[in-house]
């Protein structure tokens, strides 16, 4: 059985994230969606809230072969813990490759974990958590950028 780890800050989870996660679920026996705590970021939602939001967002996906968790450690340590040989990351056209390639090389060095890149769905590639938060902060419509469940939660968090 091959387990893949799909990490991110997911603050908030976007439809782009959900697309990558569901595609990943079609490719692997089990997918661990891991909310990674990034000390460099100040999240709107706690780790537990993000885990719950992702679980709710994936509930209607038709996928059942996923686990949602969080870690404040290295993703490679999480991979070792669950015996996963691969990390899966989505790539947009905005320079994600350069940033993600560096991390992929570090992850391989640390734990011999490979990184697989899935290109973003062209319809969703302009969406990022940062853009969603910025649009929502300014009263813009984020419908279609995030799962419907996230819209009121984000609006409340930004009040």
The description of the largest β-sheet is: 5 strands, parallel
H/E series: EHEHEHEHEHH
User: Pairing-aware structural class of the strands and helices?
Assistant: alpha/beta
CATH 2nd-level architecture: 3-Layer(aba) Sandwich
Radius of gyration: 15 Å
Describe the strand arrangement of the main beta sheet, using strand numbers.
3-2-1-4-5
Pfam families: CTP_transf_like (PF01467)
Organism: Bifidobacterium animalis subsp. lactis (strain AD011)
EC number: 2.7.7.3
GO molecular function, one term: ATP binding
Give your account of this protein's structure:
Helix 1 links the parallel strand 1 (3-8) and strand 2. This protein has helices at 15-27, 47-58, 75-82, 96-111, 129-137, 150-157; strands spanning 3-8, 30-36, 66-71, 86-91, 114-119. The termini are far apart. The longest helix has 16 residues, at 96-111. It has 159 residues and is α/β, with parallel strands linked by helices. It has a 5-stranded parallel sheet with strand order 3-2-1-4-5, sandwiched between helices. Pfam families: CTP_transf_like. One of its GO terms (molecular function) is ATP binding.
């Amino acid at each position: 059985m091959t387990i893949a780890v799909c990490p991110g800050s997911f603050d908030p989870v976007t439809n782009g994230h959900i697309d990558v996660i569901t595609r990943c679920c079609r490719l692997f026996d089990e997918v661990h969606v891991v909310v990674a705590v990034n000390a460099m970021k100040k999240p709107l939602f706690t780790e537990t809230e993000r885990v719950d939001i992702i679980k709710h967002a994936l509930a209607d996906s038709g996928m059942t072969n996923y686990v949602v968790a969080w870690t404040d450690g290295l993703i490679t340590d999480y991979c070792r813990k669950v015996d996963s040989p691969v990390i899966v990351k989505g790539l947009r056209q905005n320079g994600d490759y350069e940033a993600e390639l560096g991390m992929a090389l570090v992850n391989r060095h640390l734990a011999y974990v490979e990184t697989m890149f899935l290109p973003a769905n062209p319809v969703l590639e302009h969406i990022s958590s940062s853009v969603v938060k910025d649009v929502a902060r300014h009263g813009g419509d984020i419908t279609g950028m995030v799962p419907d469940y996230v819209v009121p939660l984000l609006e409340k968090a930004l009040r």
